[in-house]
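User: Some background: our group keeps a shared notebook of sequences we're curious about, and every so often someone picks one and asks for a predicted structure to add to the entry. Today it's my turn. The entry only has the sequence so far, pasted here. Could you supply the structure so I can complete it?
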Amino acid sequence: MGMLRVEARDCAAPPMWTIKAEEIPAEWERFETALTKTEEELMSLKQRVEKISGATEAAIFDAHLLFLRDRTILGKLNKELPSRLQNIESVYYAVVQNFMEVMRAVDDPYLRSRVLDIRDVLQRVLRNLKPATNAAPQKQEPVDSCILAAYELTPGDTADLDKSRVLGFVTETGSTMSHTAILARSLGLPAVVAVPRLVIDSRSGSPAILDGYDGILIINPSAETRKKYNTLRAEREKAYRELVRMRDLPTDTLDGRHIRLAANVEFAHEFKSIRESGAEGVGLYRTEFFLLGSDGRGMPDEEAQYEHYRRLVEACSPHEVIFRTLDAGGDKLPFEPLVEKEDNPALGWRGIRVSLSRPEIFKQQLRAVLRASAHGHAGIMFPMVSGITEVRGALKLLEECREELRERGQTFDEKMRVGIMIEVPGAAMMADVLAHYVDFFSIGTNDLTQYTIAVDRVNYRVASIFRVTHPGVVRLMARTMQAGVPTAICGEMGGDISLVPLLVGMGATEISVGAHLLPVVRVAIRHLSYEECRAMAQKALQAEDSATIRSLSHSLALKSYPQLF
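Assistant: Of course. Here's the predicted structure to add to the notebook entry:
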């Protein structure tokens, strides 16, 4: 529970205070004065540029002037001001920010580029709004107790959130299976997505409750609702503390089958907490958050990567750390911008395809991981593998890196494990062949599902039919696990305690999840019988629909650990 903070990425929100209905004419008068002053500024700028560079260059300010008096914006403002009864700069800011976010979502480069012009006009108008003589701005809630509301958040935006200041977030766009939502769950950060009219209808400073379990945002909750959620939070925190006390217990099933329980990690500040969580090392370290977070200075060089990876290996010793090589698309690379937009980026230049096409950049990362392996127990895996050619290409470059390090006299683990992500149906179908080339598989359940059933997991129109228990997906997973090498689950499915029995029964040897999920998954595994899970999984593999498969697994989960539900 906290105060709602409506935020956009362009400029800081102005102070907000409530007004009375009879103050609306005075607010409009202030606004009209600001528009006139802004108009004079823009005309002056246009004339100066015209004298220096000519009429063509000066015409850029025509767009600014048109937006300044845009009927759609003014009409929306005229409607929202009496509805909100807030000072006009606060309402104008909300209306324009909502318009800008919609413009960003338009699939037209020219229209998206106009956002900068709109932002300039917004800032000028806000700057020219003369303060009201009777203004009494409300004291703003400290930023360390807020729920962030935004039109959208990218995974990078989410990664940058300070958990000590942000209690959770809610967005107008997105889906529960988007990378942003997945990252939020990995961070243990409550989040609700796809809330219609969020930005335009929300008011900064409003008390709110964010229920991440049921996907609910409650603005201005009643005293009874507050009491209910305070009680619920206390009960959940107490139950979670009980689970955490079991962190040192082995993750063995009732009949003695060990399942390695590891952590998915994204950020350096998580390194120290890995051992405290009871994880058996790191099953997935997403290196792209480090590689892409270098403030525009380009890819960190080999030495910087080595030092970063070494710290993680040492923090997890004697357990293993699995480093996934750069898994990013051409739309976001630290060393090369993608000039032309890809029509289908999920099927485009991403993952191992990018790395193999830029071998020198790729080899920097490979050498850095190899060198870090000398300080503990490390492994490496390649993402977005679709077939044997990519595996051979990556292994060839890895061997070249080994030779180069030997020539330098730099040590590394000669037996470091090498694996691949199984995310593409073609790779799953070829698992028996690929198993001859690598030491392990790691199934990315989200992408494997997306590619198998042709459902864009971030498209809200089809998100409801995104099902990891689709029979086709489950059979591909089982085929992968039967290929003869250890197989981990590092996707969202591993954190769903209803489906842990299915994963164990199909033969998963490792489950890697966000650190906050480790206590729950550990208890689930310890209450399962492997033989019982195996029998259930055989039935699931014969099922004709996803609902039956989920029901079979959920029933066994409910029987085995009812206390977790």
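Suggested note for the entry: Residues 24-53 form the longest helix (30 residues). The chain has three domains: 17-128, 143-239, 246-339+347-564.
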